[in-house]
Structures are given as C-alpha cells and as structure tokens.
Amino acid sequence: MFRLLTGLLLLTGILTTGAQASATAQENRDPVAVAVAEYDLGDTAFRDPQTGTVSEVRAVVHYPRHLTGRAPLIVMAHGSWWACDRMDAATWPCPSGSRPFPSHRGYDYLGAALAARGFVVASISVDGINQTSFDYGDRARLVNEHLRLWQRLAAGRGGPLADRLVDRAGHPVAPRFAGHVDMTRVGTLGHSRGGKGVMWQASDKHRGEWPAGVRVRAVLALAPVKFDDPEGDNSDTLVTRLPFAVVTSGCDGAVREAGQEYLDDVTGRNRATDYSVSLHDANHNFFNTTWTPPFLFGEDDSTCPDRQVTPDRQQGALTAYATAFFGSQLQDDRRGLAVLTGVQPLPGGPSTTRVVPAVR
C-alpha cells in the first residue's frame, strides 16, 4: 500500500493554492512565546440540529502570546474514550461524584508546539458524544459549532466566547483574538474516531455545512478509524478538494493502519496533493497523554511491545509531522515538504511516507 518517496520529484505543484498571500515569508519561522487559555460553555451547550445529541462546548487554546497579523486556526478533536472519570458512569452529563474526562488535554504538547510556530490551536472536548452517540456527523458538526464561535470572535462580533475565553487566572482574553485569527486558513486534526470526524467535516459532501466565512484548507487524520456505512459508499468522508494527511502506526492495536484507505479512496481523483506516514513502531494511545499510562485508565495497546517507541518519541514524531503539514499548507512554509515526502526522516524511529499527487 505504501511507497517510500525519495528525492524531490513530486514537489512541483504540491503546495496547496490555499496558502494566502497574507502569510509572509517570515511568518512563524522562529518559535514564539506561547500562552494558554480555555473556554467552557457547559456540558449541554450544544444540541446537534440533525440528531439531537447533546454535547459540551469546551476547549483548551494554545496561542502565540503576542498575536500580530492574522494567525491560522487549528481545531483538534480527540476520539472515543471514557467520557467521565468513573468507569461505571453511563449518562451525560456525568453523574454526581464524577467529572468529565480530560481527553482534550492529551494534546497539550502538540498545541504548544504549533502555537510556538504561530498557530492558534483549540483542542475540543468530545465527551458527550463519546457517552451517547456513534454518529460521526455529530463529531463533524461539533467541530463546525466551535468554528462558528471562533468566526464571531475573530470578526470582533463577540458571541459566547467574548467573556468565557479566559486565561489560567480566569481573566478574559477574547479581545486579543479579534482581527488576529484568519478563518479562511483553518486546519483540523482528529484522532481515532475524531479522525473520521474531521474527514467527514471536510468532505466534498459536507463542506457546504461549514459556517459562513470559514474555509478549511488542511486536514490531518491521526490513527483514524476507516469504514464506510453503508459499505461501499465512502461519500461521507471523501475529500478530493483540499489537502489532507494521514498518520498511522504499525503497532496500533485499536485500528491498525486502516486510515491509509483514505488515500486509496482519492487516488486518481484528488485535486490537491495528499500525504501519509506510517510510524512503524508506534501504537494508538500514546499520541494522547491522557490515554497513556500512568494516567487514569491509560492503556498501552501496542501489538509489538518488544520494539515499540516511548510515548515521548511517538509524540515527537507526530509533532514534527503535524508542524510540517500545517506549516506547508497554511503558512506556505516549504521546509515542511521534505518531511512530508520522506526526504527528511522523522524522529522517533523508522517510518514510511506516501504521497498521492494531485490530478491536474
């Protein structure tokens, strides 16, 4: 399925036309100081208009401490895990004596690294869906709800985030973002079931559901689930009009490397170049620090424990790849192409890259 690409023969035309002129040559080439904020509108803040599923609207935000110009936004969504910090919890909101599980905080390392390169990064909580729904459209529409809130904030029109986006001391920070977030340069990242969720949200079929004024230009599916329902109909997750990347793991005990099929689906019909990498010795859970031992309920799902990489090395490989992908697609940073094509090896162990060139 995979093919290792060496050399730079495929670089012509790889960069998406979505990178805007507002991304200057110097944008985010050097690490910057990072700040952290969060917003929490409550456990029942969003009711899905199609299914009625009730979800929280909650996120942690990493961003450049000194915002200048207009920074791209990346929204990250975790996958299926315990919704509450008690295994016997069976309702949403969590029952008395239990609190929502902080899966969305498991990518803080990645959010901080991306923010240091000039991105605003919101990692959203998806516990309510995990507890009550198996509908991937629910995951996609929750991403859209967060994008809708960010669109209002970025445009200076306030909205629910105006007084609910706060720093660690509880002080509102929303005014820092007005006019400084470019909602036409949006990236998404989803892990596991969240991976299929962001592919659904970005698909040709569902892109008409994006909030007005929002343009998604890059999607990264991290160890994503992949199956079609009904079988043989991949239209809900078929993305041919914008670039996406897939990260899979050779020792993934949850979904293995099924996510590579997303590239198979678009080969010969994609209008943007797509990428993937297989991390040979990585597992499924170590990408999220809250799913990793010794964190509560943490599990090592590796199918090859004799050679698996450490959590730090696995997270480092993801950070290098995600930074390269989003930098190349949202900031016109050509340095990332060497990573995406395999010319520059990833840290953390052996890997195989794959590129599906755009059909011109």
From TrEMBL:
Record key words, sorted: Hydrolase, Signal
SUPFAM superfamilies to which the protein is assigned, alphabetical: alpha/beta-Hydrolases
Region forming the signal peptide: 1-21
Presence of keyword Kinase: no
GO molecular function: hydrolase activity
Source organism, top-level taxon: Bacteria
Protein name: Alpha/beta hydrolase
